[in-house]
Amino acid sequence: MNTHIARSAILALLGVALAGCAAMGHASEASSPRPTPAHSASEGTTQNPVPTKPAGPSALVVSDGAGWSAAGLEGQVPAPGSCHVRKAADGGDLPDPACTPGARDGRISDTNVDATIGRPGGYTASVRPPAQMTEAAKKKILGAYGIPWSEASKYELDHYLPLCLGSSSDVRNLWPQRNVFLPGLGHETSMVHNSKDLVEDYLCDAVKKHKIPLSKAQDAMVVDWTTAVQALGLPPIPASDQGTSAGGSDD
C-alpha cells in the first residue's frame, strides 16, 4: 500500500514538471522573432514590377552637335537586313527603334529655341550635311532595312526627328521613308512631299511660336509621328497648311 502511494506521488510530480517545461517553451516561442516568409510583400513587388513608360526623349541619341563632320556622319549603320519597318495604327511607316531611335543636337533645348531653330533667316541649311555624304549613307541604311539599291528611288532618306526640331544627322536618326505622295502634292517625277512632312512642318511652326515645348514635340515625334499632333493636344492640321505644290519639308 505504501509503495503504491509513493509511485502515485512520483508520477504527479513528473506531470507538474512536464507542464512547466511546456509552458516555458510556449513563452519562449512567443517572444522570439519569426523569420520573414519567402513570399513577403517586398519580394512580391519585385516579382510584379510597375510597367515602364514608353520611350521618350531620354531614349534619343544625344549628339555634341549636328551629328556629322568632314569625316562623315556619326553613328554606326546596323548590319544588312537587321532593321524592320513597323506599321502605325493608321498604316503609316515607323522605323525600327533599335536601329533608328532618333538623335538630337545636344546644343538645342527649350531654353534657346529663338536663338537656334527659330532664328531669323532659317536654321536647317546651316546644319544639313552635304548631299554626297547622305547619298553614300543612304545605300547602307537601305541595306540595313533589307531594301535593295534598285528600289532607292521609292524611298527618301529621312531625318526621323526633323532638323527643324533640333535633331542631328547621326545615322541613328536616318531611315528609309517610303514615298507616300499626298493628292496633288507629288508624283514620281517631281519633288517629294510625304505625309510625314506635313506633321513636321506643323510641329516645327508650333514650337517656334512657343505653342508647345520643343522637348514635348521631340517626344511625340519619335514615339509615333502619325499620332504626334493629337498627343500634343494641337488642333488638326488645317487644309490650308497643306500647300498647293510639291516640295520637301524643312527636316
UniProtKB/TrEMBL annotation:
Residues 1-22 form the signal peptide. Keywords: Signal. Residues 27-61, 84-127 are annotated as: Disordered. This is HNH endonuclease. The lineage of its organism: Bacteria, Bacillati, Actinomycetota, Actinomycetes, Micrococcales.
